[in-house]
Prior knowledge:
By secondary structure, the chain is an all-alpha fold. Helix content is 76%, strand content 0%. α8 runs antiparallel to α10, α10 runs parallel beside α11 and α11 packs antiparallel against α12.
Amino acid sequence: MPVYFSRFLSLVTVLVFLGLWSWAAIAIGNKVILPTVGEVADLLVQPTADLLSMGSLLTNVLVSLLRVLLGYLIAVAIGIPLGIAMGYYSAVHTMFGDFLNLFRPIPPLAWVPLVMAWFGIASLADLFGVGRGPWFIYLNNFKYSMMFIIFIGAFYPILTSSIHGVRTVNRVFIDTARVLGASELDIFRRILLPASLPSMVNGMRIGLGVAWMCLVSAEMLPGSISGIGYLITHAYTLAATDIVVAGMISIGLTGALMDWLFRRVERRCFSWQRLAR
C-alpha cells in the first residue's frame, strides 16, 4: 500500500472520530458528560495556561514523563540483565522463573496498599537529604511508591521479551563460536546480544506503553500534588470533564510519540530482520 494512501486512511479515521464526537456532544448537550471538540481543543492549543491552580498542562505532562522514565529505566536496568541471564543459563531460569511467575498476574494497582505501607510518602528528596528549598520541591514529586507502581508495570514485558530473545538465538552459532575458541564475552557481544536485541527492544516498547497505563494509578497515591494523572483525577472531582479529556489526549499523544521513536529505532537498526524472513 502506498505511503500517501495509508496516511490518507489514517486521516479519514481521525476525521470520522472527531465528527462522531462532535455529533454526540451536541446531541447530549451536557459538557460534564461529554465536552465539545472545541472546548478540549482550546485547552490543547494553550498548553502553558494554568489549570485549576495546579499548573499548566505542559508542566504536568513533563512531571509525569519524568516519573514514567524513572520507573521505566529501573525496570530496564533490572529486567534486561536478569532476562539475559535467565534465557542463557538454565540454572538461573530454574532459580527465578517460578518465583517471578507468582507475581506476574498481580495487577500493578493491587500493589498499592503494600507499597504505601513500605514507602509511605517518601521521595527522592529523602534519599538525597534535601529538606527545603527549590530542589526539595522538584525531588519531592518523585515518590518511591509511584516509581514502584510504574516499575512493576514495565518490568515483566521487558523481562519476558529478553528471555525470549536469548532463547531464540540459534545455538549452532554459539556452539560454533566455542569450537573456534571464542570466549563467553565474545559470544555475548558478537552473537547473543545482536541476535536478541530486536526482541528486547520490542519488550522495552511494550513495557513503556504499560508504564504509561500505570501512570494514573501511580499519581492517585497519597502525597501526589502534580502530574497529568493527578490533574485528571482532581478535574474529575470538580466535574471539569474538558480538562479530563485534554489530559487523556495528552497522555495518548506523549505515549504515541515515544512509541513512534521506538519504531523508528527498530526500522533503522533491525531492518535485517525483514530481509531474513
